[in-house]
Design brief:
The complex is a heterodimer. Chain A is mainly α. Chain A contains 6 helices and no strands. Chain B is mainly α. Chain B has 8 helices and no strands. The chains are: A mainly alpha, B mainly alpha.
Chain lengths: ~220, ~240
């Protein structure tokens, strides 16, 4: 496989982030080494849920407005890459939850919300696979992309009535981040590395969609 | 009558939005009433499921009043899906949808007409399964029957608003009826969850004021998704 410049940079950044987290970041005083899952978990959550889902929504709205097939390819690529990152969130979360909470899964607001966003991503990908017509596939998935994003505040509201077990945000909150400086540097490195990884995968998936559409047009 | 002369095409006016919506709803209900194919299946399914659920739990360990809200909402969800698939599936074999689209009615009116027909369908299923659950699970509902009906109706509007749109999309795909639950169920969660919670509270004798938070979630879901789905529906049609 041939790597683009972006790909090489992204892979180097991820390797660097791993080395930083494993060898140059101290253990958490209470949780010990298991706390290091936090870096993978939070970075993939940010990329998968905010960037991945956000871009699907924006590209879907723009597609229905402008009808540019490029926007549909962006939405489809972002959904697939976002699905992978969200899967990472759902795998790393329980791995951390078992030793720290004593349970793999809790029906907590954040966990439930992530799980249902993952289901919507999955439905989106299955929907695309079930339609042959290019234009119809683009329209239908744009409709689902928009509805999915609108659903988020409602799932959030309805599961908010449950008692919450998930830690409160330590990074994106009004006051200063509540983790040590070393950990803050590490998580920032992870975020940058995963944003690069997302950008690279998105671009590769987009180019694949271009090739695939060209091949479909050639065979039709 | 002043209209004694034959009307020319210039005099002809397309029916208004409300009347075309009602005409489409009436058409769908008439088809269902004459064939009675899906409504009977849905009712039989609902009653069967109610009895089977009872045996899925150990009645000596779990009180039937604790089961009743869950059973009720599982049944509403799945029998609703049965009806939703029929909504656009009934137009498929003869490609009747093309005729509907050629007719001088707004596409939003088609959506709202279908929605009204589906809503009536779901309400009939609910009107049968709610008393059946109350009877077989020995749940006294007399004290809070109106708030309960309110919760059920609010939830029905939300389920049907989203379900009708997805039904329109699902019939055009290769997976057809398989795709509808896959798309719709994640969207049913913010409806089922507050509705089931509110039902459970009411059934355990809590005051209505305690469920007002759930009712406002249901209400706002209905408003948002009714508006957005009506606006998005035209994009799910042949263009």
């Amino acid at each position: 496989m041939k790597f683009s410049k972006l790909g090489a940079v992204a892979i180097l950044a991820v390797v660097g982030a791993y080395i930083r987290a494993i060898f140059f970041t101290p253990f958490d005083a209470l949780q010990g080494p298991v706390q290091k899952i936090f870096y993978v978990h939070v970075a993939s959550g940010f990329v998968g849920l905010y960037l991945g889902f956000g871009l699907v929504f924006v590209a879907s709205v723009l597609y229905l407005w402008l009808r540019d097939p490029k926007l549909d390819r962006v939405a489809a690529s972002s959904a697939e890459v976002g699905f992978v990152f969200t899967s990472v969130v759902l795998i790393t979360g329980p791995l951390w939850g078992r030793p720290v909470w004593g349970t793999y899964w809790a029906w907590d607001a954040k966990l439930t919300l992530t799980l249902f966003l993952w289901f919507i991503f999955a439905g989106y990908i299955i929907l695309r696979g079930a339609i042959d017509d290019f234009e119809m596939r683009a329209r239908f998935s744009a409709v689902l992309g928009i509805l999915g994003a609108l659903l988020v505040p409602f799932i959030h509201l309805s599961v908010y009535f449950f008692r919450t077990l998930h830690p409160m945000p330590v990074l994106l909150k009004p006051s200063a981040p509540s983790i040590s400086r070393e950990m803050l540097i590490t998580i920032s490195a992870w975020l940058c590395a995963f944003i690069l990884l997302y950008a690279w995968l998105l671009r590769e998936r987009y180019l694949l969609a271009v090739d695939r559409d060209a091949a479909m047009e050639g065979s039709a | 009558m002043p209209h004694s002369v034959a009307r020319t095409s210039a005099d002809w006016r397309a029916p208004g939005f409300v009347s075309s919506t009602l005409t489409i709803a009436r058409k769908d209900l008439l088809i269902e009433l004459r064939s009675r194919s899906v409504i009977l299946a849905a009712l039989a399914f609902a009653v069967l499921a109610i009895t089977i659920f009872f045996f899925a739990w150990d009645p000596t360990a779990v009180a039937s009043i604790d089961l009743a809200p869950g059973v009720l909402w599982v049944i509403f969800t799945f029998s609703g899906l049965l009806g939703l698939h029929r909504s656009f599936g009934v137009e498929q074999p003869t490609r009747a949808m093309d005729a509907l689209l050629a007719a001088p009615v707004g596409r939003e009116a088609i959506y709202l007409g279908k929605l009204l027909a589906n809503l009536s369908f779901v309400i009939v299923v609910q009107a049968v399964s709610l008393p059946t659950v109350a009877l077989l699970y020995n749940v006294p509902v007399r004290g809070y029957v109106w708030p309960l009906i309110g919760v059920v109706l609010l939830a029905a509007v939300g389920l049907v608003a989203v379900g009708t749109l997805f039904s329109s999309m699902a019939v055009s795909t290769r997976l057809a009826e398989l795709l509808l639950p896959l798309l719709a169920l994640p969207f049913f969660v913010p409806v089922i969850l507050p509705a089931a919670q509110a039902t459970a509270r009411l059934m355990s004798g809590r005051p209505v004021s305690e469920v007002s938070g759930y009712i406002s979630i249901l209400g706002s879901f209905d408003v948002v998704f009714l508006v957005v789905c009506t606006l998005l529906y035209p994009y799910t049609l042949e263009q």
